[in-house]
Amino acid sequence: MKKLHQQTLVFFKPDAINRGILGEIITRFERKGLKVVAMKMINLNDELINEHYHHLKNKSFFKNNLIFFQSVPIVLLVLEGLEAVKVVRNLAGPTFGVDAPAGTIRGDYSVSTRSNIIHASDSLENAKIEIARFFNKNELFDYQKIDEEILYAEDER
Ligand code: ADP
């Protein structure tokens, strides 16, 4: 990975899988210039959800969310690029679909507090923890894309 670049974790929540909009959302990431460096589908279990959403485990909605997150498999991606954590959070938009501005993924595709299409890491520190939670090192790919010279200025590559 390039010195100034970051990796961040995204996963598609069950609402995105059920609505068949993965391709549209991945296209948004690609158009922005983010590089997909890992991708897979898994079934979440209680343990993974409890760990990933530990900050919400005392909330009244958490029990229903446990069921929701296990209703279908999820699809995870690791995206890489300059300031990727901030860039992907900006593309995702605020947590609640009703509040998220048009133009963001949650703003354009979601009207829910829970079913808000994607998870995206909220800090570089959490991105590192979350990537390690879901991916083995050998599932992350380090490769050069031919558009990088066009996407970035010399000092950003
Ligand atoms: P974010 O996903 O934007 O980082 P949080 O970490 O606060 O936001 O919440 C994690 C996820 O839990 C949300 O994306 C959403 O799916 C779910 N969630 C948050 N608040 C609520 C709520 N009040 N009711 C139902 N689900 C919620």
From TrEMBL:
InterPro entries to which the protein is assigned, alphabetical: NDK-like_dom, NDK-like_dom_sf, Nucleoside_diP_kinase, Nucleoside_diP_kinase_AS
Q: What class of enzyme is it?
A: transferase
BP GO terms, sorted: CTP biosynthetic process; GTP biosynthetic process; UTP biosynthetic process
Residues at the catalytic site: H119 (pros-phosphohistidine intermediate)
Give EC number(s), comma-separated. Answer: 2.7.4.6
Q: Which cofactor does it need?
A: Mg(2+)
Reaction(s) catalysed by this chain, per the record, are: a 2'-deoxyribonucleoside 5'-diphosphate + ATP = a 2'-deoxyribonucleoside 5'-triphosphate + ADP
Enumerate the spans annotated as Nucleoside diphosphate kinase-like domain. 5-142
Positions binding ATP in this chain are K13, F61, R89, T95, R106, N116
Q: Which GO terms describe its molecular function?
A: ATP binding; metal ion binding; nucleoside diphosphate kinase activity
> Which UniProt key words apply to this protein?
ATP-binding, Kinase, Magnesium, Metal-binding, Nucleotide metabolism, Nucleotide-binding, Transferase
Task: Please give the Pfam families that the UniProt record associates with this protein.
Answer: NDK (PF00334)
Q: Which PANTHER family match?
A: NUCLEOSIDE DIPHOSPHATE KINASE
- NCBIfam families per UniProt: PRK00668.1
Please give the family membership noted in the entry. Belongs to the NDK family.
Supply the name of the protein: Nucleoside diphosphate kinase
